[in-house]
Amino acid sequence: MIERKNHLDTRATTLLLACCAFWGLQQILIKTTVGEVPPLWQASIRMSGAVLLLWLWCRWRGVPLFDRDGTLGGGLLAGLLFAAEFACIYIGLQHTSASRLTVFLYTSPFVVALLLPRFVPAERLRGVQWLGLALAFGGVVLAFGESFGHSSSRQLFGDALALLAGVAWGLTTLAIRTTRLATASAEKTLFYQIGVTAAVSPLLSLALGERWSFSYSGYAWFSISLQTAIGAFASYLAWMWMLRHYPATRISSFTFLTPLFALVFGVVLLDEPLTLQLVSALAGVALGIVLVNRRAGPKVQAESVSRAN
Q: Family assignment (predicted)?
C-alpha cells in the first residue's frame, strides 16, 4: 500500500529544489554541448546510458522490472509521451530560441491542474492555488519576456512544438497517476519512459540526418555524463518517487523554478547580466509556489477527503 500525502513536507521540498536546480544547470550543459554533439544524438546517448544505470540499480536493489503486473499499457503510453516531449524540445530548439521554448514548455503544470482532478478529486486546486500557479507562470514569462519582441513563421513553428512538449509532459504525469503505473515502483515507471525514449531518439536522429560519432572533447563527455547520471537517472527517479507519494499538482508547480535556475546559472557561470527583471521574476515564482502549496484549513481538507472517497 502506497502512503500518499496531501502536502509537501521538508523531504519533498528539498528533493524538488535539488531537481529543479540541476535541471536548470542541465540547460546550460546542453547549451554548451549541442554545438559539438547533435541534439537528438546527444539525447540518444544520454537515455541509453540512463537505461543501463537504472538496470544496474534495479539489479543491486532487487527491484523487478519485467514482472507482469498490468502496467504495460500505461507504461508504453507514458514512454511514448515522454519520448514525444523530448523530440518536440530538441526539434523545436532548431526553430525557436531556448528562452521562448522554455516559456511554452512550462505550461505543463496547467495541463496537470486542469485534467488530473477529473480522475483524482483530491488533486483539485483551490482559488488561491490557481492564483499562485498563474503568478508563478507569469514570473517565467517576465523572465523571458525580452525574447517575444518579434515572431517569424519559423519561430511560431518552434513555439508550437514547445507547447506540444509542455502538453506531453503534463499528459505523462496524468498517465502515471491514473493508470496502473500509480502502483508501480518508481524504477519501473522511469524504465518505461527512458527505455522508449532510448529506442525512439536514434531513429529521429537518423531521420534528421544528424552525424553520429563518439569522438568528442573531454568537456562534452563530462556534460553528457552529468546529464545521464544525475539528470536522466537520479533526478528523474526522484521525480517518479515523488509522483507516487505527493500531490502531482503541488510538485508540478515547483518546476517553474527550473528555467529561473537556468538564468541564475547563466549569470554565475556564463557572466550573463543580473537584471531587475530576473529578480522580480524569481520573487513572482517563489510567491506563486508558496500560494500553490498553502495547506487548506480543516474544513477544506475534510471536503477533499470526502470527494476522494
A: Belongs to the EamA transporter family.
What are the phi and psi torsion angles at 122 (to 5°)? -65, -15
Q: Are 85 and 168 in contact (CB under 8 A)?
A: yes
- CB atoms < 10 A from the CB of 107, how many? 17
- Which residue has cell 488533486? 123
Residue 180 carries which DSSP code?
A: G
- Of the candidates 221, 249, 27, 233, the one whose C-alpha atom is nearest the C-alpha of residue 143 is 27
CB 104 within 8 A of CB 166: yes
Task: Read off the C-alpha cell for 225.
Answer: 555524463
> Residues, the chain, total?
309
Q: Is the pTM of this model over 0.90?
A: no
Q: Which amino acid is at 244?
A: R
How is the chain split into domains, by residue range? 10-308
Question: Using an 8 Å Cβ cutoff, are 171 and 116 in contact?
Answer: no
Per-residue pLDDT of the chain in tens (309 residues, 90 and over written 9): 556 777 788 899 999 999 988 988 887 788 788 889 998 999 999 999 999 999 999 999 999 999 989 999 999 999 999 999 988 887 887 777 666 777 778 888 888 888 888 888 877 877 787 888 888 788 777 766 766 655 567 777 888 888 899 899 999 999 999 999 988 999 999 999 999 999 999 999 999 899 999 999 999 999 999 999 999 999 999 999 998 889 888 888 888 888 788 778 877 776 767 777 767 877 877 787 777 777 654 444 444 433 333
**CA R_g for the chain:** 19
Annotate 232-261 with DSSP letters as a single string.
IIIIHHHHHHHHHHS-HHHHHHHTTHHHHH
Rounded Cα gap, residues 27 and 263, in angstroms: 9
Helix, coil or strand: residue 86? helix
